[in-house]
Amino acid sequence: MHACWDNANIDYLKSIMPDGKLTDAIVYESAKKGSRLNVTIDETLKGKEMTMPAGLSFTDKDGTTRSEIRIKWWEDPTRSNYKDISVIPLEELPTSPIDTNLLPSTNYYSETEKFVFFGHYWLKGNPALYRNNICCLDYSVAKQGYLAAYRLDDEKSLSDGKLVWV
Q1: Domain region containing 77
Q2: 3-state secondary structure string, 85-148?
Q3: Same domain membership, residue 105 and residue 54
Q4: pLDDT tens for each residue of 3-35
């Protein structure tokens, strides 16, 4: 997976591509800003986002001012707060509960689901699991970070000890 596994999004993609192939019509529809297919592909490839509270913003790694944060799609937003659900640690985010009315959905990837490995987030520091079934492998190798991998055998739960990086 590139950035976000959302079962509703994956089911939708399977329903419009039962043979797993893109058609010209699907490509055309995916380019229509705001269409269901465009939003689904955007979330799958870039991750879920939400607007920061109270007009807050931050400057990203490329110098762009942003008012939306990428959220941990494996966390239940109804039981989290703005600071904890942000993929990128931002000091200015409050620890107040999330206004779920601002979210398009409260779907999240639960602890009982299959392992999922993904990239996209340019994480910093030493590779570590988010949870026993959630593993990000993008640790900014292109910016002097780590090239990370997971040695998957037949385990029932992921373990930090199986992560390797150079």
Answers
A1: 49-109
A2: HECCCCCCCCCCECCHHHCCCCCCCCCCCCCEEECCCCCCCCCCCCECCEEECEEEHHHCCEEE
A3: yes
A4: 999 999 999 999 999 899 999 999 999 999 999
